[in-house]
Amino acid sequence: MTEAGGMPQKILVIDDDFANRQVLQLVLKRNGYLGVFAEDGCEGLQLAKETKPDLVLLDFFMPGEDGFEILAQFKADPALRDIPVIIFTVLVREESERKALEMGAVAYVTKPFDIDQVITCIRRILP
């Protein structure tokens, strides 16, 4: 998928799992997106500031700060707060999903994730 200027839309994936990053890299590329990848929240926040992604896929369970803390930092930063964030996690609890959405996430996808579901979710958010 491309922006109006013809450049592919950029998606930042923040996930400490190497295999997830590899799969998402292939899937995003195959669907016309440019993937940018971070291994943890700190690196993800820095890359978001540098690359200005169109969307973020944020894992909730990583070393250091958890997804709630990283999401809060995204939403507190004026330069990042308007970037849509999709949470993807193994945590399947209604209260976690509700809290993430209340904090500003635009979607909540559980792992193991279905690639078609992830792409459908991205396409719904990035026309």
Describe this structure in words.
There is one protein chain. The protein is α/β, with parallel strands linked by helices and 127 residues long. The chain has a single domain, classed as Rossmann fold. 43% of the residues lie in helices and 19% in strands. It has helices spanning 18-30, 41-51, 67-76, 94-102, 115-125; strands at 10-14, 34-38, 55-59, 85-89, 107-110. A 5-stranded parallel beta sheet has the order 2-1-3-4-5, with helices on both faces. Strand 1, helix 1 and strand 2 form a beta-alpha-beta unit. The longest helix is centred in the first third of the chain and has 13 residues, at 18-30. The chain is globular. 32% of the residues are buried. The model has no long low-confidence stretch (mean pLDDT 89).
